[in-house]
Amino acid sequence: MHTMWKGSISFGLVNIPVKLHAATENKDIKLRTLHKECKSPISYQKVCPVCEKEVAPEDIVKAYEYAKNKFVVLDEEELEALRKENEDKAVEIIDFVKLEEIDPIYFEKTYYMSPNEGGNKAYSLLRKALEDSGKIGVAKIIIRSKEHLAVIRVYQNTLVMETIHYPDEVRNVGDVPNIPAEDNLTKKEIDTAMMLIDQLTTEFQPENYHDEYRTALMELIEEKKSKEQTVTGAEKTTPTPNNVTDLMAALQASIDKTKKKKPATTRKKATTAKTADEKEPVAKTPTTRKRKNA
146 pairs with which residues across the strands? Predict the structure, then answer.
């Protein structure tokens, strides 16, 4: 199981080196977005709307928008120093509470905790203390540059850490619209509802529940594959150069370029001189050749 965090948990003078492992995983079926015409996957680029050009990762900085289009830029070195300062601290259990005192709305994500080197005995001690006391520990931890409030409890002989929301992260229930202030119900309606609840009451068995939509979607995908109802995305290709075509194009371009540079008057004079030579041929005597060579 992949280790996503290493550190230590402490309560009192007991220090426990531990590792965190994600306890859950997302089973959603990921669908790609294709170009309808050529079935090629669509790529998304980071483009500056002002410069109208793609922005490279090294040209991107982080900032906090404190007002409309007003930012405080934070250097990566500043953020890294802040993260390092807090990550180096041991995670300390600050309180022990009862699990039922925390409403499920606060719970966020669950991690398994395993002992790191030399932490087996301290790990067992905390596990036993939590089991016997019926309490859970409340602590703070930094994961992926964010400080989380968390609880530590026992789940099937394993310590688990569950990150929970801070109170200001839970929205005010009073802001929910259209909630009826009073119950305008008859006794018969309430009794009928209670009877239905009694009939459907059972012991919670998580294996009895399945993601029916995901199952149906996978069955549809497999059916289409078996019937060969598939497509192949177009690939971007670089045109293969045609040497003959390129050579002819180059020759023609050279001819056109020469024609443009050579003035018409020069061509006319050369023609006149040739005509004169034809009418009055000069005898190629030794003297003539000597003069020409001179």
Answer: 143
Q: How far is CA 110 from CA 20, 42, 95, 158, in A?
A: 10, 34, 19, 12
- State which fold the 5-25+91-169 domain adopts: Ku70; Chain: A; Domain 2 (2.40.290)
Q: Model confidence over 231-261: pLDDT tens digits?
A: 887 777 766 555 555 666 766 777 776 666 5
Q: What is the pLDDT of residues 147-202, one digit of tens each?
A: 889 999 999 999 999 999 999 999 999 888 988 888 888 999 999 999 999 999 99
Alpha-carbon span 114 to 3, nearest angstrom: 9
**Cβ-based neighbours of 6, under 8 Å, separated by 6 or more:** 17, 18, 19, 20, 116
Task: Residue 162: name the closest of 154, 150, 170 by CA.
Answer: 150
| CA nearest neighbour of 170 among 256, 107, 251, 235 | 107
Distance CA 159, CA 154 (A): 5
Residue partners of 122: CB distance under 8 A and separation at least 6: 14, 15, 16, 17, 115
User: Closest by alpha carbon to 235, among 31, 46, 35, 32?
Assistant: 35
121 contacts: CB under 8 Å, gap ≥ 6: none
Neighbours of 135 (CB within 10 A): 17
Q: State how far the alpha carbon of 181 is from the alpha carbons of 24, 163, 176, 189, in Å.
A: 38, 33, 12, 18
Both tokens assigned to 62: 């982080």
In this predicted model, what pLDDT tens digit does every residue of 60-74 receive, in sequence order?
Answer: 989 989 889 899 988
Instruction: Write down the pLDDT at residue 117.
Output: 87
Report domain extents, the chain: 5-25+91-169
